[in-house]
Amino acid sequence: MNITLAQYYNDISGSQTGIEATIDGIEMSVPLDPANRHYAEIMRQVEAGELTIADAE
Amino acid sequence: MSKAAELAALIGSQTALSNRNLIINGAMQVAQRGTSSTGSSYQTVDRFFYSASNLDNHALTQTQQAVTDLAGFSNSWRITTTTAESAIAADELVYVAQKIEAQNLQQLAYGTSSAKRVTLSFYVKSSIAGTFSTNLYQVDDNRIVNSEYTISSANTWERKEITYAADQTGVIDNDNGSGFYVTWNLALGSNRKGNAASAWETQNTDNWGGAGTYTDAVITTVNATWEITGIQLEVGDVATPFEHRSFGDELARCQRYFFKFDGTIYGLSYANAYTLANIFNPVKMRASPTYAADTNAGSFTLTSTGKDIGYIITTASGVESNGVINLSGDAEL
């Protein structure tokens, strides 16, 4: 997967609920679920130092 | 095969007379993402995955292809090389696969003395004749078993049957992760093959393919094609006739892993500050899905709250008429 942008987002109570990411050129909303393949790949790239997830606005 | 022979095969297969096919969408009926793509990974026919590692200049088109020359089947999944790879280097690997959810494979009793063999059958047609490599990859314990098949005549549908050994060592976890990759290899670099045995062993980088000589000409020949349909994986060592399922049945099975709505979701005003709508996934999904949309004119945030539901929300006002068009949810393996 080519992940070019990743940023956490919050729900209306301010709790972190997901990651907005651009994956293979498509904007996606990725849940914080280790069984989700996009989330797993984002975290793999973060651990490998290849990707940084921006804080929520 | 005569009706009597079909019945004998079913009775002798030691497996269920229905729901025996472990493959989803084996007749390539469902293609929610689209019918043609130049990309890799999941792009066209549901549940089928194309992987290419370390290639230099290869380009392809993958399509859900209308079939008119194979009785009983209307669709296939076709790979067409549009730019040929000049040569397959040692570290290069191309395969197509379906990943099967682990909890659907518990009947195989892997890791026990009761482990069962499985038989794979499929129809394949290619512009390239020759011998091709296949494997089953068991994810949880990183184990693999190799096999091969030969296409005798180019551009002709041929049915192939492969029985894989049972694995009394590796355990498939009873969960929603990957259990098997059912794999058809299209190119294997020299560092990617070498397992001479037809028994299960630990998967290393050098045994994704067997030790035979396999053609990679589908990848190294411009306009070469390879297509497949009628895939069945079943318990036992007999390949029974393909179990046709209804489109609706296959669609629902596919939607556990991916769905795409055809239409627009509109939000309603909520608490005088938000525009909000719930999303009800068509079926309980394998995992909490990734949401995306073809168009999101209202700049809604798409939030998945689990395997069943999610919501769209925005703080913008006056966007009730700007919906989320063609929302998709992805919980593929």
Number of strands of chain A: 3
Order of SSEs of chain B, N→C?
HEEEEEEEEEEEEEHEHEEEEEEEE
Largest sheet of chain B: 6 strands, antiparallel
Mean pLDDT figure of chain B: 94
How are the strands of the largest sheet of chain B arranged? 1-3-4-14-6-9
Sheet with most strands: strand arrangement of chain A: 1-2-3
Please give the radius of gyration of chain B in angstroms.
Answer: 22 Å
Strand content of chain B: 35-45%
Percent of residues in helices of chain B comes to under 10%
First and last CA, distance of chain B: 35 Å
Topology:
The complex is a heterodimer of chains A (about 55) and B (about 325).
Chain A: E1 3-10, E2 16-23, E3 26-31, H1 37-47
Antiparallel strand pairs in A: 1-2, 2-3
Chain B: H1 3-12, E1 36-37, E2 48-53, E3 59-66, E4 75-83, E5 93-101, E6 118-126, E7 130-138, E8 143-151, E9 158-164, E10 178-188, E11 193-195, E12 201-202, E13 209-210, H2 217-220, E14 225-235, H3 247-255, E15 258-260, E16 264-265, E17 268-270, E18 274-280, E19 290-296, E20 301-304, E21 309-314, E22 324-330
Parallel strand pairs in B: 11-13
Antiparallel strand pairs in B: 1-3, 2-5, 3-4, 4-14, 5-10, 6-9, 6-14, 7-8, 7-10, 8-12, 15-22, 16-22, 17-18, 18-21, 19-22, 20-21
